[in-house]
Write a structure and sequence with these properties.
This protein has 162 residues and is α/β, with parallel strands linked by helices. Helices cover 43% and strands 14% of the residues. The protein has a two-stranded parallel ribbon with strand order 1-2. A two-stranded parallel sheet has the order 3-4. The longest helix is centred in the last third of the chain and has 20 residues, at 129-148. The model has no long low-confidence stretch (mean pLDDT 95).
């Protein structure tokens, strides 16, 4: 599952977050996934997407033993490459909204990684307008990163899942 912040700047719960959590729980309970790798930003002591998401998944009945955290998923590119290189996943499902999964799958395909996307519920255009604009720039950056062979900010020792 790709990380995102739980709360918006105005203090409201981020619907992208809520819908990713709900999609992950549904897939796990339907026995479509066995383990969950949460990849997100933990760049400061006061911001920790993976742990927040893990806690909410546990609250919804997912055993902690089935959840792995990637604290260095600062960007989608990092998350996808680290899933294979650090967490040794040979095949995996990326859980996010459709627009984000399109970019994540494109990265995976370009890096020879076997991944599929599961699209969590999306938000309406008015709610997600800022995100949709940001996504346009993210796609341009993705193409540049792939052309220049950009690597994750951090790699490190392997942490096999399962």
């Amino acid at each position: 599952m790709l990380g995102t912040t739980k709360f918006l700047q105005n203090g409201r719960v981020n619907l992208y977050y809520t819908y990713r959590i709900n999609a992950t729980v549904a897939l796990y309970k339907a026995k479509k996934i066995d383990y969950i790798l949460i990849s997100g930003d933990n760049g400061t002591n006061t911001y920790d997407e993976p742990t927040t998401m893990k806690n909410d998944l546990i609250t919804k009945g997912i055993p902690a033993s089935r959840i792995y955290l990637d604290y260095a998923g600062f960007r989608t590119l990092d998350s996808i490459i680290r899933a294979k290189e650090i967490f040794t996943l040979q095949k995996f499902t990326i859980i996010s909204q459709k627009f984000h999964n399109e970019r994540a799958i494109f990265i995976a395909e370009n890096k020879g990684i076997n991944a599929i996307g599961f699209n969590a519920r999306d938000v309406n255009i008015h709610y997600g307008l800022k995100t949709q604009i940001r996504e346009r720039f993210a796609r341009v950056k993705m193409i540049i990163d792939l052309l220049i062979g950009k690597q994750p900010k951090y790699l490190g020792k392997k942490i096999p899942i399962g």
